[in-house]
Amino acid sequence: MESSSIGKVPIRERTFLTAEWRYLAMLNYEFDPEILRPYVPMGTELDSWDGKTYVSMVAFLFQKTRVRGLAIPFHENFEEINLRFYVRRKGPEGWRRGVVFIAEIVPRFAIAAVARLFYNENYVALPTRHKLDLTKPNPTTDYEWRFQGCWNRIHLKTEGSAQLVEEGALEEFITEHYWGYAAQKNGGCVEYRVEHPKWRVWQAEEALLECSVKGLYGEKFVPFLNAKPSSAFLAEGSEVTVYGGRRI
Predict the structure, then answer these.
(1) Which PANTHER family does this UniProt record tie to the protein (predicted)?
(2) What pLDDT, on a 0 to 100 scale, did the predictor assign at position 118?
(3) Closest CA to 92 of 18, 191, 197
(4) Cα–Cα distance between 194 and 82 in angstroms, integer?
(5) Bridge-partner residues for 101, per DSSP?
(6) Which residues pair with residue 231 across a beta bridge?
């Protein structure tokens, strides 16, 4: 029996995946909610912060990955790049704040296949690479993925020191959604819980997205993701646990 960190409600769950998520570059864009409504899974509704709807480009390192306790050779450490937005669902303990993925990019086909099989998540396998400069107090990160013969990139240069996010801040809204929701082919929805401690973040001095937005996500995403992000920061990350999903 695991105990949920959301409202301390006991939920019988089985661990699906454990890993470390490290150095999460997060570029956050204010979006027209009407663009996102077709992607909202059944049983959930769009979540907002300060009356605004956000979509995030997120790139990070998956490390020490275990699926149901087992390490899969050559699939333990890799990059992931995803485009996500935020929803909520009313549970017995109150609102469950969650994320929905428009698309998730990983470097190996087997990783994408497992995620599609168990959650019907929108994973795609593309070549990826990264560069981290951690020699200074202000880390610099570059995450890249190759699509249609061109390298796309998220670049983030930080400033200041890493700090725990303030309660009620946009950074808290972005980082502290502890549920995932995935629409199913039959019109239903799968809900799963993600557990991790609060993260420290560095604010961004520079943030850059170079991306084939139309080809990867569709033309309607172009004007939003080609604009300057509303906010950008680097989250330190931590160990995480992803629990098995259930239909709602």
Answers:
(1) DUF2071 DOMAIN-CONTAINING PROTEIN (PTHR39186:SF1), DUF2071 FAMILY PROTEIN (PTHR39186)
(2) 60
(3) 191
(4) 16
(5) 84
(6) 28
| Look-up of token digits 């086909």 | 109
Exposed e or buried b per residue across 167-192, where buried means at least 16 C-beta atoms within 10 angstroms of its C-beta: eeebbbbbbebbbbbbbeeeeebbbb
Within 8 A by CB and 6+ apart from 25, the residues are: 58, 59, 60, 141, 143, 154, 156, 232, 234
Q: What is the pLDDT of residues 189-220, one digit of tens each?
A: 999 999 999 999 999 999 999 999 999 999 99
Length of the chain: 248
Contact 100, 39 (CB under 8 A): yes
Could you tell me where the DSSP H helices lie in 88-204? 109-119, 170-175
Is residue 212 exposed (0-12), middle (13-18) or buried (19+ Cβ within 10 Å)?
middle
Domains of the chain: 2-247 (2.40.400.10)
Say if residue 2 is exposed, middle or buried (CB neighbours under 10 Å; 0-12, 13-18, 19+): middle
Mean pLDDT, residues 103-128: 76
Cβ atoms of 121 and 182 within 8 Å: the answer is: yes
3-state DSSP assignment of residue 216? helix
Cβ neighbours of residue 242 closer than 8 Å, sequence gap 6 or more: 15, 16, 17, 18, 19, 180, 192, 193, 194, 195
The DSSP code for 48 is: -
